[in-house]
Amino acid sequence: MMKNGRKLVWLFVQFLAVAALLFIVAPRLRAQADAPPAIGDADDNFNPPPCDFNDGFYNNNGISTSNLGSTAATAQGVDSVPAQRFGLFRQTGPPAFLPGQVNWVIDNTCATRDAIRNNVRILATTGGYVDDGTGSPTDFISLIAFITNQNFFLQNFVSGDPSADCTVPTPPNLPNSGCVVISNSLNARNQPGDDMFDLVSNFEAYPALKQLLPNGTFAPVPCGSLDTLANNPNTLNPGLPFNPPSNCFPVTSIATPQLRQDWRFATNRNAIDGSDNNNVQGSGNTGVIVNNSPFGYFCDDLLGIWINTYWWFTQDPRVNGPCSQIYANIAAVEGTSLDGTPIVKTAFELNQQLEANGCGQEGKLDFGGADGGAVWLICPAIPDPRAGAISLDAFLDQVHRPNGFPLDINFTINFLSLQIFGVFPNELTAAQLKQVQSAAASSSSSQ
Amino acid sequence: MHGARGKHVSRREFIRLAAVAAASGPFFSFPERALASQKTLRIAKWAHFLPEYDSWFEKELASQWGEKNDTKIIVDHIPVERVHADAAAEVAAGKGHDLFMFPWPPAEFHRHAIDHAEIYQNVSFKYGSIPQISYKSTFSPKTKTHFAFADFWVPSPLHYFEDNWAEAGMPLGPGTYDSLHSGGQRIRAKLGIPCGLALTPTLEGNISLHTLLYAFRAQILDARGNVVLGTNAFTTNALNFVKSLNQDAGSSDELAWGPSGNVQAMLARKISCTTNSISLLRIAERENPALAKKIRLQPPLLGPYGVTAFPHATNCSSIWNFADNKEGAKQFLVDLIDSSGTGYEKSQSCNFPAYPKTVPNLIVRLDRDSQSDPPHKYNTLKDALHWTPNLGAPWLANPAWMEVFNSFVIPRMFASVVQGHLTAQDAAAAAQREVTDIVEKWNQIQSPAPRG
């Protein structure tokens, strides 16, 4: 109780600090609205804050809005209980962390601004490291719903312009223009003509679940289908001890309190022309292969769906072993997570430093829902978080230490800068930057 | 009148007839002399997975080209498993066919092939510059030459029975290697049907296991040509996964199949899935449409490195430097590209053109495939180019990499772990030594070889 109380106090201090900063700067902001950096009025706040999609948009992109099914394995759509869609579920509770704080509000301007949206505006803004090699804490996303099995991907669906004949065509004919036809369990005729089920495998989000269990034991494998002999630490690295059965960490929830560090997202996979070294036809434009996604996140993955790549450490960081030095090397650069394991921000750290040495591992949950957790996420990234996209009533969803301080204050600084001034910190004036930094520091001064 | 006119031949007609007679006379009078002057083009060609394609290639494409170019064409179809040995025998003898068509990049034979840059250049005037997959499959940075000409490749998607995988809650297929394991385990437990990756030293085993290795982020050679197979945990991770997969969801048959054993097992419904060229599905459509209807296609399984699968075949044609008819062979390859569209059709969409302009409506053709039941299932292949790296990736198909491929180092490494003869770490270390020896051997070989 004492611990929880202290956490709440400091979270409240953080909240007050932000409120105070808003109070101080708001009049000045109005006065300088048209001077850079942009802030304030309509011509500056041109990026809309995030809202949920309407049901038709989900369906047209191959995702069911069914509310049927009560378990991860039996759920059939984003309106089901296991999907926990904003607007239907989770108005309070994680990711919200203050009493009475809400994750979403009803906002009738959403649909008028953008016809593919409904009226659920998302306040919970989850931070993540961008998977571009820098590990910058600059990704901000809306964790709208969880997809727990394949049934969410529509297998038979027809819609379209009422004036068009949208009946299922006789092969080899294609659907008429203006029609969306998904048929025969193929999930292959969504709006852009792509197979959503195949497409979303190209976009990975990396949740880092706590491995330090409440009883103090460190679990080096996930529970469920990934708890295999092949994933046993001793199999991956013979220098590590054999992990006894059932010493595993749960994968049924990826709510923020279950995370040991903040997310990492692969939103950089967005250049179909190869300009990001995307390997469109064999190599990038500089000959260096960074990734091989043929799709663009913002242009193809219209619902912002990710597949979750769970990743974990194979050695207890509290004991000496073959991975200790590797962990220490990464921790020296990035710091440590709530588990005492190093924070990982980049693909290089995960793949080349950890996994290449058997000191880390990754995996995806069972596509049938057998693991009980989120296999995919409806979790669109905010395309441009500047200039109004982070509204004044939004809050940052990030991993906090037990005392309530943020694990990575850089998310806090970036978020406050975007929320209050509409720009990243590198675009702030010196005075503005100082204001943001002191607001962020006020919530973490006793760390 | 008519008869009288027939007897009268004008001076002009007489001269014309005399000229025709003079031109054709030797052939009619001395046919053996005419045949002796006709050129011959000898082609060795890997036997395609669909015999219909080979029939068209020999009886229509090659035959018509021979007539047009006054060339006698001899086409020998060689089973895939014999291609390497037959090519090696020709190289050793310094004689054989003029043109040898391989189902993979013949980098090992680069010293015995002409530079095919001229062919790529000729083709570029009509169809654009060399495609990446062709470049990376046929270019030798050591000699700065192209040892072959690659005109098509065959994607290797996952085939699975929709009804089997629906039993595991995955009607859209396993999607990832992790779900292949967990779903495959449930299917075998429930239906007694194992999943069916080929693990044998065959083309199917080679492609499946090289693909899996690459998807697990393991590489044989890095981009600088260094041997990295056994230097990290990626390879041991892949080895442990396959062992676990075979034990929990597979069968002993996976280690015993001969060529196309996985195809036969699918057609007999003895396995729930496999990776292969779509020739598997085409055979099913022809022989058992009801069975074919239950087979679905999916892009390659998602692994730690992404969605990726090596091509089931990369058609690479090499003109030997000891060929008798080099010029004819060159012209044949240049002209061959004009038939890529027909080749795509005759191969029933197996052969994806290296030059996209030759089949500009490929996506529409896949989508409207007339054999597809249910419709649109070939649509899955529309992005195949994006998930298909060249053999040799992340670098080029070089001689050492291809010798590793053709001597089945990788299937043998996997088999030793799955059968329990070696631990994953020991198997990876043994393979590392074997690959290192191969690389060192090729480093000592001078290029090019003396001309035959």
Overview of this protein structure:
The complex is a heterodimer of chains A (447) and B (452). Chain A has 10 helices and 15 strands. Chain A is of the alpha+beta class and 447 residues long. Among the domains of chain A are: 1-47 and 384-447, no CATH class; 202-363, no CATH class. In chain A, the strands form 4 sheets. In chain A, strands 4, 5, 6, 9, 10, 11, 14 and 15 form an 8-stranded mixed sheet that branches. In chain A, strand 4 (124-130) and strand 5 (139-141) form a beta hairpin. In chain A, helix 1 (2-31) packs antiparallel against helix 10 (430-442) and helix 9 crosses helix 10 (430-442). The longest helix of chain A is centred in the N-terminal third of the chain and has 30 residues, at 2-31. Mean pLDDT of chain A is 83; it is low at 26-40 and 270-292. Chain B folds into 2 domains: 39-154 and 313-359, Periplasmic binding protein-like II (D-Maltodextrin-Binding Protein, domain 2), CATH 3.40.190; 158-310 and 374-444, Periplasmic binding protein-like II (D-Maltodextrin-Binding Protein, domain 2), CATH 3.40.190. Helix content of chain B is 49%, strand content 12%. In chain B, the strands form 4 sheets. A 6-stranded mixed sheet of chain B has the order 2-1-3-12-6-13, sandwiched between helices. Chain B has a 3-stranded antiparallel sheet with strand order 8-7-9. In chain B, strand 4 and strand 5 (145-146) form a beta hairpin. In chain B, helix 19 (399-406) packs across helix 21.
Structural topology:
The complex is a heterodimer of chains A (447) and B (452).
Chain A: H1 2-31, E1 51-53, H2 55-60, E2 104-106, H3 109-113, E3 117-122, E4 124-130, E5 139-141, E6 145-147, E7 157-160, E8 179-182, H4 196-199, E9 204-206, H5 233-236, E10 263-265, H6 297-300, E11 305-308, E12 310-313, H7 324-334, H8 347-354, E13 360-363, E14 376-378, E15 395-397, H9 409-421, H10 430-442
Helix pairs in contact in A: 1-10, 9-10
Chain B: H1 2-7, H2 11-29, H3 31-37, E1 39-46, H4 51-68, E2 71-78, H5 80-93, E3 99-102, H6 117-127, H7 132-138, E4 139-140, E5 145-146, E6 149-154, E7 158-161, H8 162-167, H9 177-191, H10 203-215, H11 233-249, H12 261-267, E8 273-275, H13 279-287, H14 289-294, E9 295-298, E10 302-303, E11 306-307, E12 313-319, H15 326-336, H16 340-346, E13 352-353, H17 362-367, H18 384-387, H19 399-406, H20 409-418, H21 424-444
Parallel strand pairs in B: 1-2, 1-3
Antiparallel strand pairs in B: 3-12, 4-5, 6-12, 6-13, 7-8, 7-9, 10-11
